[in-house]
Amino acid sequence: MNLNQITLPVCDIEKANHFYLTLGFTQIVKSPHYSRFECANKATFSLLLTDDEFTNGAVIYFESDDLKRWVESLKAKGIEFDTEIIEQRYLWHEAKLTDPSGNQIKLYWAGDNRLNPPWRVNINFDV
Prior knowledge:
alpha/beta; 2,3-Dihydroxybiphenyl 1,2-Dioxygenase, domain 1; 4-stranded mixed β-sheet; 2 helices
């Protein structure tokens, strides 16, 4: 199975649209309360306008094999980062930022370690 879709709550859809377009995603649906963006691997994520207060504890990861260039280009466009690119103990390189609605975003590169870390296990239930 594949993870296909994540929906993030946002408090200002136009600011959020601009932010994700600036990150380099292609917007494929736009309405006053909902937007959807396509990733390079054809997965999508969406934004849903809400008037309710929310705290989103999830962290959304977007991967690039040219992370350094991507982060540098975004900084040149005015995107502010919470951290520089950091090599994590779990062998990923990550830079953290926050979208205009407070959603946590990490831009990262993990290479083969994403699916095959040295500590990988293979546990599943056959149905």
